[in-house]
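Colleagues,

Please find the record for the three-part complex below.
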Amino acid sequence: MSENGSQSNSVSIALTGSGGAGVITAGAMLLDAAARAGCYGLFVRSSGPQIRGGEAAAMVRLSAQHVEAQDDVFHILIGLDWHNIERFAVELPLATDSLVIADPANGPPPAVIVKTGARIVELHLKDMAKEIPQGRPNMIALGLVAGLTGLAEDALKAALAKVLGSKRSTALQASLAAVQAGIAAAAGVGFDRRLPAAANSGHGRWQISGNQAAGLGAIRGGVRFVAAYPITPATEVLEWLAANLTKVGGTLVQAEDELASINMIIGASYGGTPALTATSGPGLALMTESIGLAVASEVPIVVIDVMRGGPSTGIPTKSEQSDLNIALFGLHGDAPHIVVAPTSIANCVFTANWAVHLAESMQVPTLLLSDQFLGQSRAIIEPPADLAFATRRLTAEITESTAAGYQRYALAAGGVSPMAIPGTPGGQYTADGLEHTPRGMPSSQVADHMSQLDKRRDKILGFEYGDHWADIAGDAESELAVITWGSAAGPVREALSRLRARGQVFRLIAPRLLAPASPTRMAAALRGVKRALVIEQSHSAQFFHYLKGYFDLPCPVASYHRPGPLPLRPHELVEQIAKWSAA
Amino acid sequence: MNTPAVTASAARAYKSDVKPVWCPGCGDFTVLSSITKAFAELELPPEQIAVISGIGCSSRAPAYLNTYGFHGVHGRATALATGLKLARPDLTVVVTGGDGDGFSIGGNHFLHACRRNVDLTYVVMDNRVYGMTKGQPSPTTEPDWDSALTPGGTGLRAFNPLVIALASGANFIARGFSGDPNGTAQLIVEAIKTPGFSFVEVLSPCVTFRPDQREWRTMVRPAPVSPTHDIGSAARRLMTDDGFNLGVLYTGNRAPYQPPRKTAPATPSEIERQFAV
Amino acid sequence: MTEGPGIADVANLLAHAHAMESEAHERYLDLAEQLDVHNNTEVAALFRKMAQIEQLHVQKILERVGDMELPRLSPWEYRWPGAEAPETAGIGEAHYMMTPHHALSMALRAEQRALEFYTGVLESGGDASVQALARELAEEEREHVALVKTWLAKYPEPAANWAEDPDPPMHQE
């Protein structure tokens, strides 16, 4: 392990450039090539406020093992130009043993880079590119990275061919030549981090973003109707579903706004089709009234919230975990519903699938909290097992009509009453947001209100969630526990594995099921724990306060919390956990 | 020496020092200039103007102006502007936004802003696309325009916002084109001067997601007939309009909505007397 | 949009000349800012230079104006042949990846339009002092056209794929 504690078989590379430099494309190719060479990896993008031509950074982490967080520092930074680098500098931490490649054509490297003490090597990337017909500096940079890290050439070639092969072959030839030039130039630059020799060729693994993964999970879960209103950073969930849902016989429609999209999916679901939408904080805020309608009328729906910096318009392109409160408490009245959150990019597949299963099984809205980091980062993962939940909505077959008529909201053990799908003879009923009798007629009677409130609560409290409720890992005997959720779990896991390497062990609990609260399960998970630290990415420590308010915690609990826009990094968490555990 | 009202630099005085992030080639640059030229022409003090917007590329405009402004949430700019104007009738309140913000999520508020006829000027920069979220169709997009979210196109007939404005009660309806900034400036001046809800649709091509709109400059024309005050003729014209007639198309004579304010208001204690036993 | 120039007197022509140079200056400044924001510093610098040159032209016009009182015209009252003042570079012609060749081509077209405007005034006949001034202004524009051509010659046409940006657009809100 190097002095800063980061894994020695993990390399983090950043490419920065603007105005058509193509760093994002180069970063994507790098991830793809590394995947083909058998590496794991994570690709994160950052950019300025321009829609095109803005300053951009492609941040790629490659490793022998699965990675779920950005590393503490970048080992290689290649600046195709330095435009507005001040905007990114804080996202591109460098150490003294980091390597910066600077093109003298851009002038001297900016002070903010120089003062990191990183080693700066000058290479004439633009000139090198000019020597190759149609050569581009971003391809030179790609070749440089390959040469420096030992990335297999044929993997790189395959990655290039995939993107450029269908275009004029001159583009592919030019890029290959530029890559070769980069590889050759790397020979003259010393660099000591090599990519791990691959155990296998990466064949069988997946390259996927959290947004795509959530879309896939939804399809696996049986969603066949989606209403869509674009919002950053959720739009890709919807765009992926637009392309893929129809292939499995589903329908996607663009709505005029979030009020329309939430009501459209309630309508579709009322008609018997599992339905879903995806949005972000501002959209979820608009949807809350109608989510309450789905709770009261017991219509299953799934709403994915890809969280971004809040409040209000906030920071649309950055990640944060600050929609927990609105997801838990944003409905007016007493409106019990399900809130789940994936704990990694790969887990977005399972959790979206599970969300559909929960919604359909209990006839209740399920909110899935993802975030910009999970949603828009691309990772190399093992293909997630298809757990094939036997998801079944309890529907009503009316075999005989009774004098009382079909009772849509009949009080039944477990709280889930059979739902008549329109078209079922004898099953006609009016779904209603008004409080109602078991038959479904509006009621303001105390007995009906009480019994229906109990029904809607009991059905979700009594459900068998199983082990899926949380990821529990680490040392089962440790008296110290770290509790976290969502995308924070990745950096926390890495921090804990570093601490384990130096002999410090902790228990890790990352609930996937956030609502209903699971005090009994949490207490069992914390048995024997003397102290716990809650880690999250929110300014007001929303998760910490939720735990304190709704769980019987057997021990003192501390909080490490901060808002976005910067990602949680392992060393930051190692420091916080170590400091807390020593205190 | 007297220089002519140098509207170029007098107009520039209404611009803030924040540099727009719009893509070079975007129509919104000239619409912004038209707005500033209109302000300069009317000699409005910048502090007496409020520019209200929603969310989207064109809704970034308030930050680029040296007036008061509010960059609100998606689709609600006309409502926010209505509240401001009713509370502060002394201000000149201008609403700016795009076709997605204004006619999709903002559709309901658009209807009621026209109906309520508060003295506002609504400039919509219509590029028939959601630009800021990277290219989805808006209500004014052609039915066959392909996008990732709507492969093959929506298949839905596009809105005609001018007809909707007329039907809902707007008192001034005009169409401009970003390629005709002086003409557009004139429309905005007229819109501001006309009492009631003035709606100016400005065709403003999106160079990034709708490069096909480059041909708009060959398709626009001055409206072949002069503006009408007759709502029936206006309805006929607008229903058969092909979307490229420029100019003032309709001016009504509805009185603007502005609830009267009592000049000698009662005090709370005078009001309380009603409860006395 | 108006039909050809029908300039009544010298004051009116000077008003047009002044507006033309001012608008050209403002437009080049705008373009410089846009390209700055989009990290095209080379062309931004070019546009900034052009803006400075236009500012000098504005000064020259003001020297000609001296104490004369000029008519106060609204932006739409100018008798331009096209939608905008002729010397105003077309804003729709900009592109975040444009090259100096493109920028100077834009400038050349602008100067040529300015020249055509004054020759149009000449050709439409009329007041002798207007004609005299139009002749002088046309001669100045001719010089500008030549200057821009020389400048442009330093920047050959770029490769056909000059606008190729491998990266997709970025979402913002």
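Helices of chain C lie at 10-37, 41-65, 100-123, 128-153.

Comments are welcome before we finalize the supplementary table.
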